Protein 1
Amino acid sequence: MKKKKNIKYIFVVGGIMSGIGKGISASSIATILTHYGYRVNNMKIDPYLNVDAGNMNPTEHGEVFVLSSGLETDQDMGNYERFLNRDLSHHDYITSGMVYQTVIERERSLKYNGKCVEAIPHVVDEIRRRIEDSALRLDNDVQVVEIGGTLGDYQNLLFLETARQMHLDMPESVTFVLVSYLPFPKSIGEVKTRPTQNAVRMLNSYGINPSVVIARSEGLIDQKRREKIARACNVPKGNIIPAPDVKSIYDVPINFDKAKIASVLIKELSLQKRKTTGVLKRWKQISRNIQNNKKNPVRIAIVGKYFETGSYMLSDSYVSVIEAVRFSCACSNTRPEISWLSAKKFENRTAAKHLEDLQNYDGVIIPGGFGSRGVPGKLAVIRHAREYGIPVLGICYGMQLMVVEYMRNVCGKRSANSLEIDPKTRHDVITIMEDQHEKLADGQYGGSMRLGAYTAHIVKETLLHSLYGVDKVDERHRHRYEVNDAYVDEFEENGLHVSARSRGGLVEAVELSEETHPFFVGTQYHPEFTARPFFPNPVFTGFIRAALNKRVV
Ligand code: GLN
């Protein structure tokens, strides 16, 4: 084992309820500490038994974020990468499923020397090994560990127990941040602190006391409430960090910095003071650009199917796409107005009217997806956008459907389809990748797609080439199907060009020339996963520019 450097650990836990910004808090803490000169790493622990996030339904769990290594993870990992401005590794993500799998495999191969294998110590030791492994990989000073779920969940108890033990062994190097919510019931007219007090009590019952409480609330909390929480929760008043709702998540590091969270953590962890790096200055600028309110917005429609849950529409399934749009808008001096259009709308009796309404948008994105639901609607949208010159960006499934639509409506192959939708189609213009047959026949669905970063070689003199300005680019993938090479000549002769291929020859991108269409680009890869606040993805930037031009006309 590597020699242990004195790394500091900040465990971020959530009280009261989920969805209050624990991930953004963890990302913001990391950003701020980077500003104060420390090398920081983020990691996420998800308590579910899935080995990774790959097989989870995005409507229930949100986006599956793919790391460059190919690991399918939780959407919070995307936030960490965007806030830290670097790639994270697969060591930085843990699920209970992964932990148990390792422990059980070890037991099966007699690595526990005949001992009875138990949650404590064996599972806890494996969790700790993984946390330390992640922290020690790079030359980090601070490791920010977000424990998924909410206090009181049965599933994350062993993670909290691991954190407690780490604190016991290294009291000067381990600290806890509780992100809690303070409700403001309108009928009472006052912010209530009691749920947060109860959350701290629960944490205390696990042998842990937070050193910082991030008080999430609708508005700013007053001194009186801060004092109340401090007193009841055994935390100094200065360690209660107010965190009111914000217009943009990119304001959170700035707000936390104003509340002096860095000096609190530096003191709690006995960190040596360092020279600041200026990260927050750039951050302020980017946050201002992202919220650009001066100009008219660019109107973007995302046509998908993973946002309806009951009577609510959630955008969580496409977070990285939304953020990628935001960054490209920020650098193009505009801001997006994003609309969610359910693909279903374009399939029923009123489809024609909805297609006509597409003129109200400056650009359309067809994001990734799986299965046949919503496909006819997406095909109708692609056709309309192609015929009426609306800028359209197809990502992964979106790109595959662009090819299907083109083969059907331009090349005249009416039965052209993806094998994913119609396994018996006469024209499988989108076919299954060679190595996938066996995997599917064996029922191997977990982590078995073409995943992670692969190099796309860009064809010179294409729109894509002019966007990237380089001959090759590493982008992230997540798919089982691919464009069938047998049809490439035919659609190319009819005007749809292949603009990038992998080293093995797989079609990575297609486009119509700019003379034919202002922006008709599809990528087999997901450009949204590499878009960062300071480094927008060129494909999105090209799309936004084309959308802006459409509006001006
Ligand atoms: N369902 C398609 C495939 O597996 C596309 C996947 C995606 O959009 N991520 O190839």
Protein 2
Amino acid sequence: MTVSRVPRSRRFLVCDPRHFAVQYAINPWMHPDTPVDVDLARDQWQALIRAYRAHGHTVDTVEPVPGLPDMVFAANSAVVVDGRVFGSLFHAPQRRPESVHYDTWFKAAGYDVHRPESVCEGEGDLVWTGRYLLAGTGFRTTREAHREAQEFFGHPVIGLTLVDPHFYHLDTALFVLDGGPAEGVADIANIAYYPEAFSPGSREVLARLYPDAVLATREDALAFGLNSVSDGRHVFIAPRAEALAARLADRGYVPVPVDLSEFQKAGGGIKCCTQEIRS
Ligand code: ARG
């Protein structure tokens, strides 16, 4: 029997890719010699925004800044839970100036922003499940930042170690499908993930917490299929992650394919371009 999944409308923060480029290499996907088609990138990005709006989601935008080519990856700039904004401190010096522009947006929108003392790349590594935060480390966000986030939010933070440089942020290897009881799902929240992106111990933790998770193949993960956004029913997902989309459909989710191939040249996808504001 297929379950009927219930969507919940979200509020997203995004940043137009008009200054998007690959000018430096801070992950294995980035090759500054490969040209980026900015017009194509903008078309793809606009299709994502249209898809969000067509499914009832609210989208706010931060003004992009020239010289900050990765600013389009809004997920990295903060994590917002219960209306509390935990800002960012980027690992790469090239990205550090992005934080202040997002902080300015949040302040203008009436939020206080906590600036982390240790490297923390927002929702790239801190993933809210509806009950606690799953927190990636290994490449970017530090253990110290996990502790700081737990202290700040007062929600449990569960550290997970990433081991494959292709999946350098937690949101390239795992995403939340639904928010569990808060979203009318009988059981705990559920997730999809690629086990081999994690250390053996972290894999065991995920298997214990999510015995019913949707597991992805390496092909799905390399196609950025885990860099997806779910509203509890619709899953905005890279079209090349076909096996994963089929598994999700079997579980009653509705895949909504959105192609952000141009952003893969920077190591990014749908979720990277999307920050959720949970007020
Ligand atoms: N070029 C960016 C970086 O390496 C891509 C960030 C992708 N964002 C994400 N949430 N995974 O930092």
